[in-house]
Amino acid sequence: MDKLFFKCLPGLAAALLLMVACNAADQRTGQGNAAREEPASGVAVPAFVADSAYYYIERQVGFGPRVPNTEAHRQAGQWLTETMSRFADTVYVQQARVRAYDGTVLNIRNIIGAFQPEKRSRVLLCAHWDSRPYADHDPDPEKHFTPIDGANDGGSGVGVLLEIARQLQMQETGVGIDILFFDAEDYGPHRFSDRSDNDFWALGAQHWARNPHQAGYHARYGILLDMVGASGATFLREGYSMLYAPRVVRKVWDTAQRLGYGHYFLREDGGYITDDHYYINTYRNIPTINIIHLDNTTPHGFFPQWHTTGDTMEVIDARTLEVVGKTVMQVIYEER
Ligand code: AHN
Ligand code: ZN
After folding, report:
1. What stretches of 13-150 adopt beta strand conformation (E)?
2. I want to staple 287 with a disulfide (CB 3.0 to 4.6 A). Which of 3, 225, 245, 257 is the partner?
3. Which distant-in-sequence residues (6+ apart) come within 8 Å of 145 by Cβ?
4. Calpha distance 14→119 (Å, rounded)
5. Which protein residue has the closest C-alpha to ligand 1 atom 8?
6. Ligand 1 centroid vs 329 CA: distance in angstroms?
7. Ligand 1 neighbourhood includes 273 CB (under 6 angstroms)
8. How many angstroms does the Cα of residue 120 sit away from the middle of ligand 1?
9. What is the pLDDT of residues 84-136, one digit of tens each?
């Protein structure tokens, strides 16, 4: 009974919060759920609700660190599957066992929501849903083996994409959309382990890219969201994105500029990051970019709380979620 109570209360809070968020949007536009904004291009794009994306991050973090083979991870995966099932036309859950750098066998799940599955022309949106098992960049050495909340690293991309999924359910796009939540992105070698190989990151994406949920799966292009929620985020042009998908980078950065978000999407090059998109590009030949917070002023090149116990809800700013959500929505709703 206790369990039921704890399960239902957040559910009710969710419903209420979403209702409030929707009503707020309704009042602004007076158009109910079909709330529309028509900027420069003239395409009707539904209004991304940043508070809703923020709430989806809070829910994920609420399960505890989403580290593979833990109860919090199992429960978060269950919630993600259920939530995606409310929005997408078809949901696939791809289960697998993969071997981590240290030999640990991880039970993983990639969760995929397909919108308008009958459409041949498709765009893929993705993020990782697991969180890192260790805060190996924490300023406090005692925390170097503490799992992290991953509010920004993991949680933010999923939060933005769940809100986009909610909008897709209310108003369809000209192309089909697939939203992929990859598992086990962040189980890469501990900073102090002797394995420094880059191929132990993005294990879920590596598995999916070799065994897609549909044989021969293809999409026009893909967009990965990684660490898209910190206040004052800067998105530099990531190396592999420029190498494999320069036209997609240009399309997205131009769109952001048009929407007035040029101070987030900088026309500046960042480093090459081995992330989920690398395997989508190399194994599946789908030109895929990474919208990732890069910062040349920190020692590791990421946001300041990267892989520390400080990656909590406190770093999340709804304004950043809004910038990314609106940009991605504009791009996909303009696609014919
Ligand atoms: C490397 O550090 C080689 N890849 C890390 C990509 C990453 C970690 N994204 C989020 N967390
Ligand atoms: Zn990470």
Report:
1. 36-37, 45-46, 90-99, 105-115, 122-128
2. 245
3. 134, 135, 136, 190
4. 31
5. 186
6. 25
7. yes
8. 32
9. 999 999 999 999 999 999 999 999 999 999 999 999 999 999 999 999 999 99
For helices 203-210 and 276-284, angle between their N-to-C axes, nearest 10 degrees: 20
Q: How far is CA 23 from the centre of its chain?
A: 25
Is-above-0.85 flag for pTM? yes
Any ligand 1 atom below 6 A from CB of 153: yes
Cα 46 to chain centroid, rounded: 19
Pick the atom of ligand 1 nearest to 227's CA: 10
- What is the whole-number distance in angstroms between the Cα of residue 186 and the centre of ligand 2? 5
Q: Where are the domains of the chain?
A: 12-333
CA separation for the pair 47, 330 (Å, rounded) = 10
Neighbouring residues of 56: CB distance < 8 A, sequence distance ≥ 6: 83, 158, 159, 162, 163
Nearest CA to ligand 1 atom 7: 275
Architecture of domain 12-333: 3-Layer(aba) Sandwich (3.40)
The whole-angstrom distance between residue 330's C-alpha and the CA centroid of its chain comes to 17
